[in-house]
Amino acid sequence: MSELFTGIGELLTNDPGRPRIIDAALVVDGGTIAWVGERAQAPTADRHTFLQGRAMLPGWVDSHTHLVFAGDRSAEFEARMAGESYAAGGIGVTTTATRAASDDTLAALLGDRVREAVAGGTTYLETKTGYGLSVEQEQRAARLAAKAVDEVTYLGAHLVPRGPDGEPVDADEYVDLVCGPMLEAVRPYVRWADVFCEDGAFTPEQSRRVLEAARDAGLGLRVHGNQLGRSGGVELAVEMGAASVDHVNHVDEADVEALAGSDVVATVLPACDLSTRAPLAPARRLLDAGATVAIASNCNPGTSYTSSMNFCVGTAVLQMGMTVIEAVRAATWGGARALRREVGTDDRPAVGSVQVGARADLHVLDAPAAIHLAYRPGMPLTWGVWRAGQQVVAPVL
Ligand SMILES: N=CN[C@@H](CCC(=O)O)C(=O)O
Ligand SMILES: [Zn+2]
């Protein structure tokens, strides 16, 4: 059954030839977009939905989250707001809480977080392991994640965990585990591997070993890089041909040029930057240099406990010098590109755009234009969400 949407006050498409259409219409057929254009030219369809002048965007593609966890770190956050700095060690606190949770509890927590993300307009979602940090626990996280989200990333190399009696573990021996039995255990459930290349986590050499092993196992690569300092993560991501390097708070001109000259997506995480009081990632500089930028929530209990992409996009406009069209593109097409899902095998648009042939993932705002995401920050602007043509969030009337 086909469905015609009219009364779209502003439609953002990510079609470079026609990024914004005023007074638009759209036809969805069989879960994909069949027609896009101005209302005056719209064809007929089996059903008709009139949106009363509201704005429509592609559904958010959140390409970086850590949703498989138990516990909370609000005390750590409160201390940070009182002047403490963020350090990687807090990952161990969440690892302890996550290991102690039953499968059912962890699956329920994950399910709730996915529902929250969808309620906020997210229609395509990545999440990572990384709070298990043992063969068994990482495999459990990957298995649960594979049932709940679209893309799963293996992040056994998140932190070197403590031993059973709280004793330090040799980092290189832990990397052997990450590259060997742990990788083998998670392999059936994951498409990506990631590494936290940073002081207090993994050195560039250790990170390279992890990425090489993952690549040899057929996984795509991602890097947490340059979050706390110039960690070498950007250089490594470019050298290894990773799909994305995420955080990028501390970059110099050479890093920016390297990203601009590569296929590596620079993923900025505005909510994380606020929550850790980090220097904001230089999204404007990256865009001006020609790099591809994605925006993601980085939802996790340590550095960014929100899955609100509306908030991330509003912040990118308010604080990072992005235009609303750039920010929406980065949080939709950019995220899809970071996951290598922006086009399908047939080379047609697949995820993250409102173009003919793309999956009908649609986000309707209770506002006439997308700029309201920054103009009315914090307001509940998500009005309706469609995933592959099926309405998954209906307006509260
Ligand atoms: N930086 C590394 N990992 C997460 C934070 C994890 C945590 O502190 O629990 C991030 O992306 O910010
Ligand atoms: Zn992260």
Structural write-up:
The structure is a single chain. This protein has 397 residues and is of the alpha/beta class. The chain folds into two domains: 2-58 and 352-393, Urease, subunit C, domain 1; 60-338, TIM Barrel (Alpha-Beta Barrel). The protein is built from 15 helices and 15 strands. It has helices at residues 74-81, 91-100, 103-119, 135-148, 171-179, 181-186, 204-216, 233-240, 253-260, 270-275, 283-289, 309-319, 324-330, 333-338, 372-375; strands at residues 2-12, 20-29, 32-38, 47-58, 60-62, 122-128, 151-157, 192-197, 220-225, 244-247, 265-268, 293-295, 362-365, 382-387, 390-393. The strands form two sheets. It has an eight-stranded parallel beta sheet with strand order 5-6-7-8-9-10-11-12. A seven-stranded mixed beta sheet has the order 3-2-1-4-13-14-15, covered by helices on one side. Helix 8 (233-240) links the parallel strand 9 and strand 10. The longest helix is centred in the first third of the chain and has 17 residues, at 103-119. The protein is globular, with a radius of gyration of 21 Å. The model has no long low-confidence stretch (mean pLDDT 98). It binds N-(iminomethyl)-L-glutamic acid (NIG) and zinc ion. N-(iminomethyl)-L-glutamic acid binds at residues 66, 90-91, 94, 196, 224, 227, 272, 298, 300-303.
